[in-house]
Amino acid sequence: MNIVIMGPAGSGKGTVSSAIVEKFGVTHISTGDMFRYNIANNTPLGLKAKTYMDQGKLVPDEVTIEMLAERLSRNDLNHGYLLDGFPRTLDQAKAFEKLETQLNMPIDVVLSMVLPLDMLVSRITGRRVCPKCGASYHIVNAKPKIDGICDVCGTALIQREDDTQEKLMVRLSEHDRNTAPVIEYYESKGLVKEVDASKSILEVEAQVCEILDLFR
Ligand SMILES: [Zn+2]
Fold first, then answer.
1. Which of the residues 7, 79, 80, 83 could staple to 2 if both were Cys, CB 3.0 to 4.6 A apart?
2. Active-site annotation holder among 71, 123, 127, 128
3. Which CATH number does 3-115+177-213 carry?
4. Tens of pLDDT along 15-34?
């Protein structure tokens, strides 16, 4: 079973991905991890990607696709893949389609994590992190024992600059602008299944299992 998971940060994508891997045995391919692996191991593609990143440039899609081709060609994908963080644009989706065909690993289903904007905003803007030990909290959903203080080490909690409403809105509108055409493209192929990500983690996982059981 080959799966693509899409959704903005704060949609619970990471947690759901772990649950899918555990239950269905698919191989999690996160493009973020893939980049880190290639760069840390100085692979030819990692070095290529690094030259762009060092100049503050985006890594071209061809490099990412080459990395994916290499990753998907390894022999540890007996139960299929769960692709996370890619494709983010229509061009990437089209490039990936060529690769899927070449490798004979077509996408079976695209999970689209959907939740209302106000909920996404409160999830992200309510996050607080400990600058010392990295523990994370939420002002409503995961409060520290003492307001504003880390349970683990007693340090004053901070809000990450990226988690402010202003920064978040910029990030979300960019995310939507890029991914809306991708979703539309996959919808036209009948691949999209929406997941109501506003529910609790357990409910979201149950929904996802119900969807994926159809493709086993
Ligand atoms: Zn701490």
1. 80
2. 127
3. 3.40.50.300
4. 999 999 999 999 999 998 99
